[in-house]
Amino acid sequence: MKEAQKNSNNYYEQLNDLRQSIGQLDEDLLRIFAERRKLSLKVANNKLATGKKVRDQAQEKNLLSNLTKKGQALGIEPSVTLSLFHNIIEDSVRSQYDFFLENCAQESLEPLTLAVLGEPDSYSHIAAQQHFATKKRRFTPEFCPNFLSIFKSIDAKRADIGIVPIENTTAGNITEVYDLLLQYQLKIVGEEKLKVKHCLVAPKGASLETIKDVYSHPQAIAQCKAFFNQHPHINSHFRSSTSSALKLVAEYQNPSIAAIASEQAAESSGLEVLSYAINNYQENYTRFLLIANQEVNVPNAVPAKTTLTLQTSQQPGALLDCLQVFKSHGINMTKLESRPIPTKPWQELFYIDFEGNANEINIKTAISELKTVATEVTVLGTYPLHDILATKLDHHALSNQLNKL
Amino acid sequence: MMTPNNTIHNKNIHRLDLLTTPEALKIKVPLTEKSAKTVIQGRNTIQRILDGKDERTLIIAGPCSIHDIDSAKEYAHRLKKLHDELSDKLFIVMRAYFEKPRTSVGWKGLINDPNLDGSNDMNLGLYKARELLAWIAELGLPTATEALDPVTPQYIADLISWSAVGARTTESHTHREMASGLSMPVGFKNSTDGSLSAAVNAIISAQSPHTFIGIDNGGNTALLHTTGNPYSHIILRGGKKPNYDSASVEACIKQLKQANLPPRIIIDASHGNSSKDFKKQPMVAKSVMEQISNGNQAIKGIMLEGHLVEGNQSLSENLTYGQSITDSCIGWQETECLLRSL
Lengths: 405, 342
Prior knowledge:
The complex is a heterodimer of chains A (405) and B (342). Among the domains of chain A are: 199-275, Periplasmic binding protein-like II (D-Maltodextrin-Binding Protein, domain 2, 3-Layer(aba) Sandwich), CATH 3.40.190.10; 304-384, ACT domain (Alpha-Beta Plaits, 2-Layer Sandwich), CATH 3.30.70.260. In chain A, 46% of the residues lie in helices and 24% in strands. Chain A is built from 13 helices and 15 strands. In chain A, helix 5 runs parallel beside helix 6 (175-184). With 342 residues, chain B is an alpha/beta fold. Chain B contains ten helices and twelve strands. In chain B, helix 8 (246-258) links the parallel strand 8 and strand 9 (265-268). The longest helix of chain B is centred in the N-terminal third of the chain and has 19 residues, at 33-51. The termini of chain B are far apart. The model of chain B has no long low-confidence stretch (mean pLDDT 95). Classes of the chains: A alpha/beta (405), B alpha/beta (342). At the A-B interface, helix 9 of A face loops of B.
């Protein structure tokens, strides 16, 4: 009996020691990561001086293949090494882009006032935090009750910048924002993509069996339609925001009433998360636009994207003529969206996103050509591209390495 | 053919207005951190006084009704000074009454008719009431009110530290249910004829759980399930004759004990206890204070009706600043002298 007690004490101490050692290593990892980030910024400084591009695919490939080899010698699978370093490289590239941008704009480091929808931990707020994570400049959120007040706030210069959702990969476009973009003629100065995980949030003691009514923003409910189809006894109800839905659940304290909201908001509301990611598709993303009065200057070293609107004449093939311009200049269009023009019934306005910087010669020529075939062309802004594609090691290189082992 | 709906339903209702939701009003006039502190501390102190854990006497002083925000703010400002100065013996709370039940008809209070002209703009009234309560709470002075309409607490109760149910509504089932769910201590007044049984029954009822129809923060109808309010107590306000004297207080204690209720009493120095003569209030208050000094531990507090200017006036174009437009009040000087002498 005593022996058993002693043994269990020993095991307990052992576990404690191991945990402490791991904790120490994790801190070392963090410190090393921070040092790596500093070095990466020095590299950016060097590239800025020599006029080199931020990304060097050949250099990245070299680095990755080297690392996977060394990893294998240490017993780490190449796939594990790759996924770890893709994250590190993404952060590094983003930090370097932001360094170039900040350097180019010669901005002050005063925090920006950022108009954002909802309340703390709304999806827009989370996207804003993600956007500023690699920037030197911080922001102070100004929470707005609706999209219109975000645009008004920037227009009246109460806020320096704003963030608005523009499209979701499951539920589609947020058409109201498209219309406001045109109405207020603000500039698009950036974009951010957020992987959205909708959580089912309820008071203590609730379960999928007790829940009858679920409240949330219409967008969130649309992105979780499959959940409601699978649980036909649960009714969905609209609220003006996910935070207002959470407040209702907190007020009712009733095991039959739940909300759909972000994990962060659920945690700070003190309610329980019954189910993480109840969205129809696990790969569920919302793209946000950053908007401001002044356009940004995107340096050549940073990959850019441009958004413009155009109206065509009412002749057959008018849109095709416009699209032909993109093709002939080798410009990659990433989005084409049409919206009705309220003052001209049955005529359409087209929103086009494409890769490229409106300051490049090629793009400038394309835009002036567009003006000859379209009736009206307005550039809404050139801004840094959000996506940082992971450099892939080709299969051949990987299998070669495996054979050498 | 379908019968037009209003020939059998809502026959005597000629119009409906949309009313702001509690949620929307609270966004316009939020509960700040400082005002939340005032309310929480105010409620805790009053509960401790009712429990006998705080020896001080609760004083609820202020206008019979509030009809003008400026004079109410000035009164609050002056009362806050006394609240701080006299805090070793008294716990002073401001009476801020926005809802006035009338004997027959008349002005029904700031929430109901903030423009004093019968236009009954309750959206404005609720806003003005909440704005004033938030201002006073921000000042650090707790407030007391009468809970008359069972829905209005959803709009303003988070800023209030103590509530009363009036003599005419103590017997009302609706008000007992409401009191069982209120977050602050609630006093029930004895009946206008002086009998205590309605108030005693009201306390028993309010301390028990109830289920009734109300609204939620978003303004939707909801079923409210209450836990019961353990801090409900009686207020002696006099009847056909005053009941603040020691014999009446003893009789009240006896009746509370018979009903298995803790003996905790607040005495209203006005109304039946001043025989409808406001000038008698200081005399009543002093006499009650004497009973407390003589060792009566059941008396927890005193209510006074006072404003900046004594007396009252009828509603007219040219109102005197700082004077009541409902029942007569004692003036500020008299209030200050009285409170300092207690």
